[in-house]
Amino acid sequence: MLKLLDRYILSRFLKTFLFSITLILLIFIVFDVKDKLTTFTTKPISIKEIIFDYYLMYIPYYGNMFSPLFVFVSVIFFTSKLASNSEFIAILSSGASFKRIMRPYILGAIIIGGSSFVLNHLVLPKAFKKKIAFEDKWINNNYNSEDHNIHKKIGTNRMLYLESYDNRTNIAQKVTLEDVVGNKQTYFLSADNMIWDSIHKSWQLNNVYERFIEVQNRIDTLKNQKPIYKQFNKFYDKKEIKIPFTPSDMWRFESKIETMTYFELKDYIIREKMKGSNRIEFFEVEQYRRSSFPFATFILTIIAVSISSKKVRGGVGLQIALGLLLSCIYIMLMYVFTTIATTGVASPALAVWTPNLIFSCVAVYFYRTAQK
After folding, report:
1. Tens digits of per-residue pLDDT, 205-229?
2. Cα–Cα distance for residue pair 53/289, rounded to 1 Å
3. How many other C-beta atoms can be found within 10 angstroms of the C-beta atom of residue 355?
4. Residue 292 and residue 356: Cα distance in Å, rounded?
5. Among the four 37, 64, 176, 206, which has the fewest Cβ within 10 Å?
6. What's phi and psi for 346, nearest 5 deg?
7. How many helical (H) and strand (E) elements, i.e. helices and strands, does the chain have?
8. SS3 of 178, please?
9. What is the β-pairing status of strands 171-181 and 158-166?
């Protein structure tokens, strides 16, 4: 009896979720096609590219983004139907506890939340690369960086300066590289340009001037015993260098984050910390968000079942409205605390997980007051 009940609730849960998320994605696609129809018809884009390089990547990305919200709405919708038809009361009257009834709901949340977790960390970053490449090629008119006078900290004491950079050709103009130790310049390099060598994973510099500043063993006794520095100058027509800076560092900031898998993002954060980057918080927020967002599926499922298990007058409209209100509050809290984390005011881990902690308390309250 109970195993049959599990299958019944779980199938209703998953079917309602898949139907609602499919419906909203179809609506999104219709509006997106309408918005980009001119681009699709005036440019030589093949149907294959549109389907496989764009929309096939578009669907899992936005489906995963809205999955916690539609899990919430789906659970409220079909559980309210069970309650309004007195099925929920009959199940409780048969001797099944509310805790036991929650089992298939939690199983459904594990399936959806677990899938979202894997998608966030391993699958979607690869899919997003294709989507970004398609958008840059056809929609953003071969997106090119418009930044000028670019400064990058690529080491504890090393700064890189580029007057301009072309991400289509991976060529930087007017390049300087500088090492500063203890407020003293110890190394300086300048070049007319540098070109990325994708085979050797290095930069080819042209018309290079290089200056070394070294401390001599003897001291200047006439000037307050200060060390004596000696300068060495060198010139090269061409010079190959390897530095912790690659074309990927000039990708659009949002693209750089969302196209990295869990392991790539983890390694990147370590390298950026070594460089002393001032954008560590953005990457840490993304790292923690990928785990916290799927976890919200469990919390919202418990709240949804607790709210919608009671039979109320007037149908399911009030329960769905309450569910949507709570969903909006959760999303608002997520964005507020994410913004706080990126400003460095609070720890990224704490800020990203705070909405889940708050809604865990809300879930406990609704669970205790649910119809038993």
Report:
1. 999 999 987 766 555 545 555 666 6
2. 26
3. 23
4. 7
5. 37
6. -130, 160
7. 12, 6
8. strand
9. antiparallel
At CA 310, angle to CA 333 and CA 367, rounded to 5? 50
Determine if the pTM surpasses 0.85. no
Give me the sheet containing 158-166, strands edge to edge. 148-153, 158-166, 171-181, 184-197, 202-220, 226-241
In the structure encoding, which two tokens stand for residue 148, read together? 């000028």
Q: Give the Cα separation of 325 and 319 in Å (integer).
A: 10
The pair of structure tokens assigned to 365 is 């309250």
Pair of tokens at residue 119: 């998608």
Q: What is the dihedral of CA 93, 73, 30, 333, to 10 degrees?
A: -170
Q: Match 């004596």 to its residue by tokens.
A: 228
Amino acid at residue number 85:
N
The CA-atom distances, in angstroms, between 246 and each of 127, 242, 282 are 22, 9, 19
DSSP state, 96?
A: -
What is the per-residue pLDDT across 148-172, written as a single tens digit (0 to 9) for each? Answer: 788 888 888 888 999 988 877 889 9
Helix (H, G, I), strand (E, B) or coil at 72: helix
